[in-house]
Design goal:
This is Oxysterol-binding protein. The protein is an alpha+beta fold. 22% of the residues lie in helices and 26% in strands. The strands form three sheets. The protein has a six-stranded antiparallel barrel with strand order 6-7-10-11-9-8. Strands 1-2 form a two-stranded parallel ribbon. Bound molecules: 2-acetamido-2-deoxy-beta-D-glucopyranose (4 copies). The site of one 2-acetamido-2-deoxy-beta-D-glucopyranose has 9 residues, from loops.
């Protein structure tokens, strides 16, 4: 090992030290060191072609069933656990930092809205299925450059529920939630309803925002080109005032005019529109004054001679039906209304992304295992899962064998527990009430970063 690598490992280990008030002082003392952790640009191997596999033979018996009950061949996966996939919500954490820094509450709300959209942008063209986490599986992510750390845990197996908790390294925000990805197979497509609430707390402003992610549909899983659509209404509520932002993720509609489009507004508690938000979840989001927006739309209609009333399509269930759905051509990018302010723009995918499950640069790093890291991670961390590791290395057969072994091990320990009448208890999260919505949620009990993992289950 050369000395450059040495100092890299030392820096890395420093990040993993227990979080006592004293160590965090040391921690920030090293803030300016050039970090090289989790910076790989590609995966170790390209993805394996799925052309030779017939999904139809597996799925034709399962129409209308919940997909979590159907065993799919590993080749349709991507080499990430669902726990790693949800940590992609944090890719645009700079927006949370920005929201924290703004003094005007309306400005904060629109940046939070942009964050909520950006959090689901990594779904674009990602048709690989993440691995189902095993009960007790965890994932941690420390990003000093983005100023946060995150811990997640699979807290329930049936139904599959993943809980996560992210916090700023400087106590500026907390972002947490639990997700039950309810998957339905519709014959030609798979629909995912991400049940569960996202809660963002801006500590300095004593504000909490909550929302639920939009529906997601993967089209043409049997025939034709796979493509992804997100749709539904996302309401971001400021619980201090009852003010909210209503965002409509539009279904693509008959001619694809609405593909990827998101439109909405921020309203105060008297329902007065304060700001219009528009854009595409695959590209960018803008905000504009409602009066400017309305007059622009009026003049736009005049010039295009459009008189027909637009059909209301927002409730259309575009996931059902029998024929293959061609993905409509993307007709235009976002037309910017003069006077709009840019809230967010997507980070372009790296050039080799198409051969690597369409991962973003951020996703490429999530399963990276740095030298020395395995000794510091909890033994339940996804990075130590052998099936995901094998798939990442391009060894699909080993991935299948390992996946089956892990699932059998999980079943065996469930049988053991029921024989001994033992209950499973989660290590880092507890079922409780979300203080802002009053709904049932999973809350972080703390202590993960003290790095005492003696009680962690042996799941791999
Ligand atoms: C998969 O199909 C391609 C042609 O489409 C063929 O060249 C290749 O040998 C096949 N691979 C396997 C493992 O069957
Ligand atoms: C959210 O609630 C806080 C606290 O009451 C309030 O000051 C702020 O105006 C609200 N923000 C928005 C965008 O409604
Ligand atoms: C990646 O995106 C391309 C272009 O849309 C698509 O054809 C392909 O199926 C995607 N691959 C995966 C693994 O999702
Ligand atoms: C770690 O946790 C175990 C059980 O929770 C406890 O018995 C032990 O004392 C702890 N070790 C340290 C070093 O704190």
């Amino acid at each position: 090992m050369n000395s450059e690598e040495d100092s890299h490992v030392v820096e890395y280990i420093r990040l993993f030290l227990p979080s006592s008030p004293h160590s965090s002082v040391v921690f920030y003392g090293f803030y300016l060191f050039p970090f090289k952790m989790c910076t790989r640009k590609t995966l170790p191997a390209e993805m394996i072609s799925r052309n030779n596999f017939s999904v139809w033979s597996i799925l034709k018996k399962c129409i209308g069933m919940e997909l979590s009950k159907i065993a799919m061949p590993v080749v349709f996966n991507e080499p990430l656990s669902f726990l790693q996939r949800i940590s992609e919500y944090m890719e645009h954490t700079h927006l949370i930092h920005k929201a924290c820094s703004l003094s005007d509450s309306l400005d904060r709300m629109q940046v939070v809205a942009a964050f909520a959209v950006s959090a689901v942008a990594s779904q674009w063209e990602r048709t690989g299925k993440p691995f189902n986490p095993l009960l007790g599986e965890t994932y941690e992510l420390i990003r000093e450059d983005d100023g946060y750390r995150l811990i997640s845990e699979q807290v329930s197996h049936h139904p599959p529920v993943s809980a996560f908790h992210a916090e700023s390294l400087k106590q500026e925000f907390e972002f947490h939630g639990s997700i039950y990805p309810k998957l339905k197979f519709w014959g030609k497509s798979v629909e995912a309803e991400p049940k569960g609430t996202m809660t963002l707390e801006l500590l300095k402003h004593k504000e909490a925002y909550t929302w639920t992610n939009p529906m997601c549909c993967v089209h043409n899983i049997i025939l034709g080109k796979l493509w992804i659509e997100q749709y539904g209404t996302v309401e971001i509520v400021n619980h201090s005032t009852g003010d909210k932002c209503v965002l409509n993720f539009k279904p693509c509609g008959m001619f694809g005019k609405e593909l990827h489009r998101v439109e909405g507004h921020i309203q105060d508690k008297s329902k007065k529109k304060r700001r219009v938000i528009y854009g595409k979840w695959t590209e960018c989001m803008y905000s504009v004054d409602p009066k400017v927006y309305d007059s622009y739309k009026k003049s736009d209609k005049k010039t295009t001679g459009e008189t027909k009333k637009l059909k209301q399509v927002s409730d259309e269930h575009s996931c059902e039906g029998e024929e293959a759905d061609e993905m409509p051509e993307v007709q235009e990018t976002v037309t910017v209304i003069p006077g709009s302010a840019l809230l967010w723009r997507i980070t372009p995918r790296p050039p080799h992304s198409a051969e690597m499950y369409n991962f973003t640069s951020y996703a490429m790093t999530l399963n990276e295992l740095e030298p020395g890291m395995d000794r510091l991670l909890a033994p339940t961390d996804c990075r130590l899962r052998p099936d995901i590791r094998a798939m990442e290395n391009g060894d699909i057969d080993a991935a299948s064998v390992e996946k089956e072994r892990l699932e059998e091990k999980q079943r065996a320990s469930r049988r053991e527990r029921s024989k001994d009448e033992e209950d499973w208890s989660n290590r880092w999260f507890q079922q409780g009430t979300n203080p802002h919505t009053g709904a049932e949620d999973w809350l972080y009990t703390g202590g993960y970063f003290d790095r005492n993992y003696t009680d962690c289950p042996n799941i791999y």
